[in-house]
Automatic annotation (TrEMBL):
InterPro entries: GT87. It is found in: Cell membrane. This is DUF2029 domain-containing protein. It is a multi-pass membrane protein. Keywords: Cell membrane, Membrane, Transferase, Transmembrane, Transmembrane helix. It comes from Pseudonocardia humida. Belongs to the glycosyltransferase 87 family. The keyword Cell membrane applies. The keyword Membrane applies. The chain crosses the membrane at residues 22-45, 121-140, 147-165, 198-222, 229-249, 297-318, 375-395, 407-429. It holds the Pfam family GT87. The lineage of its organism: Bacteria, Bacillati, Actinomycetota, Actinomycetes, Pseudonocardiales.
Length: 447
């Protein structure tokens, strides 16, 4: 009979001299934890060293998303004006980018950071982002633990260390982006939708802070039958935003003026070098934008067509996976949802963080089924998914030197879309095989 030491990877037999060896899991946890601490301290440096924004240094990239999408929009709101009006933001504050159509409650939720002196607010917000990045790693470790016996603490330490040393992880903290917040909300909602629907609804409400996350997430939740979570979260976001909208309408001088400001915001976004679908230098990873940057083609209604196409294909496959009742199929469905949200509508590389916990779970599930055929599609999809994380400065320099700047800007999107395509193909085959096995079992039972 096998002993516990043979089945538990965290334990090892006593050493020949009589002493007990240090558990491997403990060593890995400590080393990874130290690496994560070092990465976290390094990630705080941009906020600690950031300059006070001025008209002369507004091209500074360091903490630019905190500056342009949080701090000065809150300042504009506190000054009794409408931060959604692009020209006003550019005229009144030292920003390089205008304020996009975040949910209005964003201005109140993040007011504690926007009301502080700039540098203090930047450091405080970066600390919150650091905590949320670790929380995201914990969620990934929990998903991994569902399939392989890796202690959650060990998994969280390793994933935190990798995440804080990756390009995407470092970029969130260097730029002051709110992606870790949305990633935790989106992944958490998918993980908690059955056992803790109330908390899942709260997280859906938080995911709505960027409608390009909230809207597709709600659509997928409805497809999966979690309509209370979907509608409850949407209601929470609406209830939180309505009072802010009332203040904004008053600041704008009426409903008509506020609507005109929103239209101006949308028109501005379509013309910017960083946001337009047909911009050759945008870092967008959605299908329509990547199609333009790789082929130069932009068919009529390309964004709408790709949005509907990706969502419909993913929704059908998610429904098929959910019908099996298998835990592995459930995590594959979550991964497909995360990737689909990222490529269906305007997104940038860092937004793929929403799929990280599901990717960890899928990796663990594959490890337990690695002898099944076909064995290669899922690992390939996960490697492609991981490419943007590994797209560090040194690699970027090589890519720019070999293939040019536009390829370097586009390759993350190509990798994410390729990961989605491989995963879709794998799921189609898996669903068909599952259906055939079910048919054969029914035939045997009836005979």
């Amino acid at each position: 009979m096998s002993s516990n030491t043979e089945t538990n990877p965290g334990l090892r037999r006593a050493a020949p001299g009589g002493g007990r060896r240090v558990p491997v899991a403990l060593v890995v946890t400590v080393l990874a934890g130290l690496a994560a601490v070092a990465g976290g301290l390094r990630a705080l440096l941009p906020a600690l060293q950031v300059e006070q924004p001025t008209a002369a240094n507004k091209a500074l990239v360091q903490m630019q998303d905190f500056r342009d999408a949080l701090y000065y929009p809150v300042q504009e709101f506190l000054a009794g004006r409408d931060p959604y009006l692009p020209q006003a933001m550019l005229d009144n504050w030292p920003v390089r980018q205008t304020f996009n159509l975040y949910q209005p409650y964003h201005l109140v939720l993040h007011m504690p950071f926007g009301a502080l002196p700039y540098k203090t607010g930047a450091v405080a917000f970066t600390l919150v982002l650091l905590v949320l990045t670790i929380v995201l790693a914990v969620l990934a470790a929990i998903e991994l633990r569902r399939f392989v016996p890796v202690p959650v603490l060990t998994g969280a330490a390793v994933i935190s260390a990798l995440l804080l040393s990756s390009q995407l992880g470092k970029a969130q903290l260097y730029l002051g982006q709110i992606n870790p917040e949305i990633a935790v909300a989106t992944a958490g909602a998918l993980m908690l939708r059955k056992k803790h629907p109330v908390w899942a609804a709260v997280l859906v409400g938080l995911a709505w802070i960027k409608p390009q996350f909230g809207a597709p997430l709600v659509a997928f939740l409805l497809v999966r039958g979690s309509w209370r979570v979907a509608l409850g979260g949407t209601g929470i976001a609406a209830a939180a935003s309505l009072p802010v909208v009332g203040v904004l309408v008053s600041n704008a001088g009426g409903v008509g003026n506020f609507i005109a400001d929103i239209r101006a915001n949308l028109d501005w976004a379509e013309q910017t070098a960083y946001g337009a679908v047909d911009s050759p230098v945008a870092e967008r990873v959605d299908v329509a934008a990547v199609l333009f940057r790789t082929t130069g083609l932009l068919p009529p209604m390309a964004e709408l067509v790709t949005l509907v196409g990706v969502m419909v294909v993913a929704a059908l496959l998610v429904r098929a996976l959910d019908r099996t009742g298998d835990d592995g199929d459930s995590v594959l469905a979550d991964l497909l949802i995360g990737l689909s949200i990222t490529i269906a509508i305007v997104h940038q590389p860092g937004d793929v963080l929403v799929a990280l916990p599901a990717a960890a779970g899928a990796a663990g599930w594959w490890w337990t089924r690695r002898t099944e055929r076909p064995a290669w599609p899922l690992p390939l999809a996960l490697v492609l998914f991981a490419f943007p994380f590994a797209h560090l400065f040194a690699l970027d320099t090589v890519l720019r030197g070999l293939f040019g700047e536009q390829f370097a800007l586009t390759v993350d999107g190509i990798a994410i879309i390729a990961a989605w395509l491989v995963l879709v193909g794998y799921v189609v085959v898996r669903v068909r095989n599952t259906g055939r096995r079910g048919t054969r079992q029914d035939e045997v039972a009836s005979s």
